[in-house]
């Protein structure tokens, strides 16, 4: 648990903010207050950890608190009044937070109870440098594989497309290797790789991948260059402004690209911005209320709690078995397994009518409740956090043999860290990415083992 309490966090700053929040927002309930200060603590853990780790566990905690604490708090304290009734919280504040706060805290404890000193997140930068020096073509090979995977994913079956989608993420690992393994910045590969995801995000109107990979890119740069607190603060402010702006404009932007197939991404983005500005809706309470639904997963949880068990009985693990089946078994062995984006279970347990093409997920917190209730759901969330932590621990153990292995952790976790995704998709991504990396190590074992011997001999000759 030392990673949760013994950290580089500035306690004076945290305590000052805790007091200021209580004074300035005196009228908010204690439930909302505790939700906000728990989020603040997780965010500061993340903020101060950058420079030293690829912060998988702290990202988990921060994003879970953002979508299940901050979004609902904003809804309960004014924004729900400006929200379309369909997306409002369906239960009183005390009922919702009485489940959400203990369940998320259990999840965070599960993430850290056996984490040690953030096992699986602290890179051996010297080993990575030596590996890259002896395998100079590998970063570029991964970038090429990544682009091949991204292109091929559009031409194969839905079952195989996910595998090629994972291959597509290899280009980011190649960039990370170039950053950590080179003395000088190599801007061209960075521009090509991140330029491609910017273009695809603008073309599809989907920005989750872009935002997630920017976070991981920033953490890798921070490990190498150790930016100051002031610089990190400026980056966080600009990043938050970017994300909020995307959220505010995303709905109009998607309407533009869906309504005019001949319009380019940048033209549609500019048109969407002008449309929002004309309506004087940029950064006002009405637009913020509309956008809050994108970070507020709590309204879905309240719909589940309103339905289960009053109208629909607890699943008692039956639905969870379907999720595990979908995550582990390939479709040819289980042809009727759940698909990513399947809305059947969502509609059954939320009572919400969702039109085709709309992306909404029950989330792990919702699945935990509808299967096991409040108490059992909290226990499940603890076990889920423990599972993620154990995967990181396995990566840490094997990184002693394969020093670049930890750079693949973002590939494994960039989907699971999203709280709004369906659990079957999250676990499916986790399982498939781990299998893919395992196969890679088996096939290229001598390649990586050779790099390990070079590193070992270099350390011995240096007297280490």
Keywords:
mainly alpha, disordered C terminus
Write up what this structure looks like.
Residues 261-270 and 459-464 have low confidence and may be disordered. The radius of gyration is 22 Å and the shape is globular. The two termini are 30 Å apart. The protein has helices at residues 2-5, 11-24, 30-49, 56-76, 93-112, 125-134, 138-152, 158-168, 170-181, 187-204, 208-225, 229-259, 265-278, 285-295, 298-307, 318-328, 344-350, 363-399, 409-413, 423-443, 445-461. It contains 21 helices and no strands. By secondary structure, it is mainly alpha-helical. The relative contact order is 0.13.
Put the structure in a nutshell.
With 464 residues, the protein is an all-alpha fold. It contains 21 helices and no strands. The protein has helices at 2-5, 11-24, 30-49, 56-76, 93-112, 125-134, 138-152, 158-168, 170-181, 187-204, 208-225, 229-259, 265-278, 285-295, 298-307, 318-328, 344-350, 363-399, 409-413, 423-443, 445-461.
